[in-house]
TrEMBL record:
GO terms, molecular function: hydrolase activity
Keyword Cell division part of the UniProt annotation: no
EC number of this enzyme: 3.-.-.-
Keyword Transcription: no
Protein name per the record: Isochorismatase family cysteine hydrolase
Pfam families xrefs: Isochorismatase
Keywords recorded for this protein, A-Z: Hydrolase
Class of enzymatic activity (EC top level): hydrolase
All copies of domain Isochorismatase-like, residue ranges: 24-211
CDD domains assigned: cysteine_hydrolases
Length: 229
């Protein structure tokens, strides 16, 4: 392997090193249902405006991976229209009046194919990118994600998306257990609870990166550019 084929990204808790050929970006659940009023996030009583700061850095990160020709995966948390993949424990939770499957201003909440389940237009997938519909918080549960990553020779995953401590962290833990080296792009992720975002970054990078690494988008893009063959 040549030096140019390797990325070294200054990160917490120490440099993140990846073979360029094994690197992919995974963007978790940047959906209207989480980022816009009237969706699932708002139905749970959250201030959805708190997630918007992550959009611009995620756009830059996505553009960098697209320019590099590296794999991009998008996930969407959503359920089948008959809710057969939504456990009662998940469906029953929440204060109401709007629950998963109920009709809100963006169609049926968190249902596959409804306007609210779509990825926000700024980050819409393009042809050739992998889109994973997932019924759980983790993107490996009951999905073909592992097979898609293996088919592309992916060994290292850069994470972006929302929310940091729920679907991003859950998927990062799942990926870590499956042998992927995971890096969280710290400004391309957000939470309805800023303290939970900070705590997540601290807990994944603690203990010598027990779950993974964390670095800002600029550091990732600089390393990506420097590794260009
Ligand atoms: C949540 C997610 N927060 N995408 N989903 O329910 O993090």
């Amino acid at each position: 392997m040549t030096a140019a084929a390797t990325l070294t990204i200054p990160a917490e808790p120490y440099d993140y090193v990846a073979a360029r050929a094994g690197l992919a970006l995974i963007i978790i659940d940047m959906q209207r249902d989480f980022l816009e009023p009237g969706g699932f996030g708002a139905a749970l009583g959250n201030d959805v405006s708190l997630l918007r700061a992550s959009i611009a850095p995620t756009i830059r990160l996505l553009a960098g991976f697209r320019a590099a020709g590296l794999p991009v995966v998008h996930t969407r948390e959503c359920h089948l229209p008959d809710l057969s993949d939504c456990p009662p424990a998940k469906h029953g939770r929440g204060p109401g009046p709007l629950r998963i499957g109920d009709t809100g201003p963006m169609g049926r909440i968190l249902i596959r194919g409804e306007p609210g389940a779509a990825i926000i237009p700024e980050l819409a997938p393009v042809d050739g990118e992998v889109v994973i519909d997932k019924p759980g918080k983790g993107a490996f549960h009951a999905t073909p994600l592992m097979a898609e990553l293996q088919a592309r020779g992916v060994t290292h995953l850069v994470f972006a998306g929302v929310t940091t401590e729920v679907c991003v962290q859950t998927t990062m833990r799942e990926a870590n257990d499956r042998g992927f080296d995971c890096l969280l792009a710290t400004d391309a992720t957000d939470s309805y609870f800023p303290a939970f975002k900070a705590a997540t970054i601290a807990m994944i990078t603690a203990q010598a990166g027990i779950v993974g690494w964390a670095a800002p988008v600029d550091a990732i893009l600089t390393a990506l550019e420097a590794s260009r063959p």
